[in-house]
Amino acid sequence: MSSDKGMSSSLDQQKPKAPIDVLPDDILLEIFSLGARSTSNTSFSFRVSTICQSWRSLAINDPRLWTALSVIITADVAPPPIPTGQSFDRSLAFPREVLISERSGDQDIDFSLEYESSGDDETEGFMEPHYLVLSQCLADIAHRIRSFRATTFDWPEMYHLCAWLKGIEMPRLEVCHLVAMCSEIRVYMPTYEDVLGPVHLLEYAQDDETLPVTSQDLLQRGTLQYPALKYVPCAGIPMDWGLFCTLNLRALCIQDQPAMERPGTELLRGILSNSKDTLEVLELAYAVGLYDEEPGDSPISESRLTLPHVKQLKLTYYHPREAQHVLGAFDFPALCSVTMKSHDEDKDSSIVLAELLQYVDVEQLLDVVLTGISLPQEDFPEQEVNGAEEESLPLVLRFLRWLTHGNLHKLVLEYCCGDFLKFMNYRHESGGREVNLARLYALIVKVGTEDASVGVMSFVRDRLALGTVDGVYVGPVLERMIIIVKPNVQEEADSLGDLKLAKDGVFLFCNVTLMN
């Protein structure tokens, strides 16, 4: 019997260890951390920690594995009830969140809250008390939050989520991403029409009696409260933009604000003045206020604020004057990507294109996206002109010629007037044979009507004809071309065979019109 026991013990000793058991703890931690970051399953760390004793011990004891604080709200799962007693233990409602907060030590926390749509009638899983309790939990760790990403059904929920964060310093906060899923309806409203007031986050400390009135006042407070803040995307959330300013902002994206809640150009100038040496991305979608502007007003070019490092500019506007005021108020010497989107494709956007030509170095643009840009229809000039006489050329032709002089990489035209395509087939200089944008790398065209689809096919056939010599196409060839049209031109498109205008070209036929 003893001999059997000895043999068993000897076999156990000789049995090779599993590879995972011989890995150093540091490598296990890296594997664990990588897996936790690369999955959307928020229970990953809990599930994987049960695989083996070594991992379980690491998961419990190492704060580096407890830094992702994710909350998913769904109407399918009822949240726990919130007692009304003053001594309520928050861990009863949010046990996982409290546990992560405790075990993360002094590590940076990445917080995210997602609203999972049911697809039917939208019902909110969390009620006001749930958001307030969660807000208290976040207030306890506010000094360690590195990223704050929250998506709620509407903005009042965001108000309650941020209620306990008002006035609290968040020295490690780098990203603040706030989104209300119902944000698009706000574009049509004058105000938020609610007594709650703005969401009290990103507001710099101020005295109760006097508010900061200059950007320097805001800067002094901002360096103390949010010194690391770099990225601020905000959609459909009421903010007191007059109390927002930061020193090292890299990207500012304001979207879907009611007409009377949008910051005007002077306020935008104050917000951005202290980040003018760091800002790289500026996106304003229904976010430029015109309520304090006279209809004919235009910012004076001498007072323009230079943003030397902004490379990407995206403007989505309800009225063309919104884009006009931004282009007139700021100088973008390093700009290489521009997106202009009009809310109403039937509204004349000539002033926007004119302002681009006046204030932007169009020749250095690499990517241009135009959506819903409508212009008065113009004909080809009766005679070829160059030099100073080019000012008399149609606006679209002048715009395309300047793009042709540069190194434009990609052009996207969505629901735009047909003149853009028509004038692409016009010679880009007097006496030359090369059409406009002959060196373009990629072209994407999307139209929403049958008439516009016919116009696209005319562009394709004309460009093929202009580049064909003795029956052989020798004209400019794009690397990529995507054309999205209505099915009424499918037969004509199929008759072209291989699309010689591009190495990788495709027609897509769609019956649904979608504005991105």
Structure in words:
Helix 7 (128-140) packs across helix 8 and helix 11 (320-329) packs parallel to helix 12 (350-359). The N and C termini lie far apart (78 Å). With 516 residues, this protein is α/β, with parallel strands linked by helices. Helix 13 (395-405) links the parallel strand 12 (367-371) and strand 13 (410-414). It is 30% helix and 18% strand. The strands form three sheets. The chain has a 14-stranded parallel β-sheet with strand order 1-2-3-4-5-6-7-9-11-12-13-14-17-18. The protein has a two-stranded parallel ribbon with strand order 8-10. The longest helix has 17 residues, at 450-466. It has helices spanning 2-14, 19-22, 25-37, 44-48, 53-61, 95-103, 128-140, 155-161, 215-225, 265-273, 320-329, 350-359, 395-405, 419-424, 450-466, 490-495, and strands at residues 68-74, 109-116, 145-152, 175-180, 231-235, 251-255, 281-285, 305-306, 312-317, 330-331, 337-342, 367-371, 410-414, 442-446, 468-469, 472-473, 478-485, 502-509. The protein is globular and about 85 Å long. The mean pLDDT is 83. Among the domains are: 14-65, no CATH class; 358-377 and 390-516, no CATH class. It contains 16 helices and 18 strands. Residues 20-69 form the F-box domain. Pfam families: F-box-like (PF12937). This is F-box domain-containing protein. It comes from Armillaria luteobubalina. InterPro entries: F-box-like_dom_sf, F-box_dom.
